[in-house]
What does this fold into?
Amino acid sequence: MKVTGHKIILGPLLAVALCAMSTCAAALDTYPLQIVNNNQSGRNSSHESFEELKTRAEAALEGDRIPEAIRLYAHATKLRPGWSEGWWHLGTLLFDAQRFAEARDAFAHFVSAEKKQPGPGFGMLGLSEFQLANYAKALEALETSLRLGVGTDPAFVREVLFHDGILNTHVGNPELALKRLTLAANQIAAANREAPRDAVFGDIKLLDAFGIAALRMPNLPSDLTEEQIPLVRAAGRAQALIALQDRVAAESELKQLVALYASQPGVNYMYGVFLLKEHPSLSIDAFRREIEVSPSDAAPRIQLALEFLRTGDYQEGLANAKEAVELAPNNFVAHVACGRLWQETGKTDRALQELQAAVKLAPGSPDAHFALSRALWKAGRKSEAERERAEFERLKAVVDAADR
It folds into this structure.
């Protein structure tokens, strides 16, 4: 761990600096806020004023006297709980010292106290929760950080994107995970313009995260077995090439992947998703092969349903969509696909039933609200359709901002 001025270097290449963000409506209320248990350092700091403690804490930080700096920042923030800068320094110092529970509490104080630039604090809060294996809380905080703005330091942004990505895969959102990981890969490529591919391929953690997400495995990278690593890493290389928009090389990697691992779950599905963009008719066979390998998986059926919706083969699409809904009744995309196909076959009531179920399952999905708005409009329920359209536009703006 290094301290340079007021910038804390967290692990390899992880530097955090505050920058301008949008305001935060409310801090997370799920974190116990505790003050670090302090011992006295040097003279009796319990009788010093806040300004004296602040000055001494800053001097200790500048002098790389880390235990002393932690004690002094803890005393100073106890005297002035609204001092967000002190909570930030205390949190980063504790994080570097691998005192993650205390770091978590400090960053929870920071996001509560900091009104102008809370985004980086939510990022560090999420990373602290991740280290404590509180994955649901970690993901919530990381998503909040991305929504509010992580900052401008590339290494810190990549850390937030990486952890957000692997956690989204872990909870069953691999498509969103791939978006986050693609942003991380593009940052690495932008920083290494002479050899972007080599730079991305050199990040083994990122390759494994890509592979796990592309294969839709519920694992964290740390959970991989030795037997799984060759498959995951090969898939990761192919997905990294897709992220870098080198589709020719990606297709070559994917063909090799299918040749070696066609009997493994997720491989044919990954290839089918790739084919959808340029060779959609060929994707049908890939998704059908995935169903043979993983007969209880709804995802390839959803892709088939959407592809048949696109080509106008509504009955074939509806058969796959209905199977998908039966296999995964809590998958809102299955309900969206089923609803849109019912709509195309003239069954408006059935369409509305499926699309209302989709919105109930995923109230934050722009796509679900958009599909429902169209069905309501066709049913002549124009005021309800307009409300759904307005909600779609609001949610889409939120999603687009997070993606940027």
Summary: The chain has three domains: 1-148, 153-268, 323-404.
